[in-house]
Specification:
The chain has about 210 residues and is mainly β. The protein is built from one helix and twelve strands; from the N terminus they run H-E-E-E-E-E-E-E-E-E-E-E-E. It is about 15% helix and about 60% strand. It starts with a helix and ends with a strand.
Length: about 210
C-alpha cells in the first residue's frame, strides 16, 4: 500500500521534471539567417584516360537555420561559385596534329547548390559549436559561347562543422568548414567522364542575424 501511495508523488515529480526539461529546451530554440563568403577547393580526378582539374574559386553561401534544441536543428542553404574545369588526356603527353585525339580543353562553368541539413549544437557563453550533415543537388551550368560543352546536375552529400560567436543579442559571426562530395561533372563532350567522386572543401566566414 505504501508503494501505491508513493506512485502519485513520483508521477507528479516526473511531470514537473518533464515540464522543466521542456522549458529548458525551448530556451535553446532559435532561428537565424546567415550569409558567408568561402573558398572552394577541389582536387583533380584521373580516370578513363581523362585528367579533370577544377579551378579554385570564391563563393557565397546563404542559410536559413532553425535550432529547436541542442540535438534537433535543421537548415536550408544555397551556395554559388565559379566551377571552371580543365580537361586533358592522361596517357598521351603530346597531341599530334591529325591524330584525331582531343586537345586539352578549359570549360567555363558555374555551380549552384541547394541543400537541406541536420544540425546538432552546444553553446557556452557567447559561443555555439555545431556540426551538420545532409544533402542536395549541385547544378553545373556552362557559359554561353562555348562549343562542345553541356551542363549537368549531380546529387551531393554535405558535411561540416563550425562555431557561432554572438557579438550582439541578435547579431553574430559564423566560422565554419563545409565539404561537398559528388561525382565529377562531365562538361566537355570530347572527353570521357572520369566518373570519380570529387570533394570540394569550403572554409567560410560569415555573419548571422537571429530572430
Amino acid at each position: 500500500m505504501k508503494t501505491h501511495r508513493q506512485f502519485p508523488k513520483l508521477a507528479f515529480c516526473g511531470l514537473l521534471a518533464f515540464i522543466a526539461l521542456s522549458g529548458a529546451a525551448s530556451t535553446h530554440a532559435q532561428t537565424d539567417a546567415a550569409a558567408s563568403l568561402y573558398g572552394a577547393f577541389t582536387g583533380r580526378s584521373i580516370a578513363n584516360d581523362t585528367v579533370q582539374s577544377p579551378s579554385n574559386a570564391a563563393g557565397v553561401l546563404l542559410e536559413l537555420r532553425h535550432l529547436s534544441n541542442p540535438l534537433v536543428g535543421y537548415e536550408l542553404a544555397y551556395s554559388f561559385n565559379n566551377a571552371n574545369q580543365h580537361y586533358s588526356l592522361a596517357a598521351i603527353p603530346v597531341i599530334l596534329p591529325g591524330s584525331g585525339l582531343p586537345t586539352p580543353q578549359s570549360v567555363k562553368a558555374r555551380a549552384n547548390q541547394v541543400e537541406a541539413n541536420w544540425l546538432v549544437s552546444v553553446g557556452v557563453f557567447n559561443l555555439k559549436a555545431f556540426a551538420l550533415a545532409g544533402g542536395g543537388l549541385k547544378f553545373f551550368s556552362t557559359s554561353s559561347g562555348q562549343t562542345g560543352v553541356n551542363g549537368e546536375t549531380k546529387p551531393v552529400f554535405v558535411y561540416g562543422a563550425g562555431v557561432d560567436y554572438t557579438v550582439l543579442p541578435h547579431l553574430g559571426l559564423r566560422f565554419q568548414y563545409r565539404g561537398s562530395l559528388y561525382r565529377a561533372p562531365d562538361l566537355a563532350r570530347a572527353f570521357s567522364s572520369t566518373n570519380r567522386f570529387a570533394q570540394t572543401s569550403e572554409p567560410m566566414l560569415g555573419a548571422f542575424v537571429r530572430f
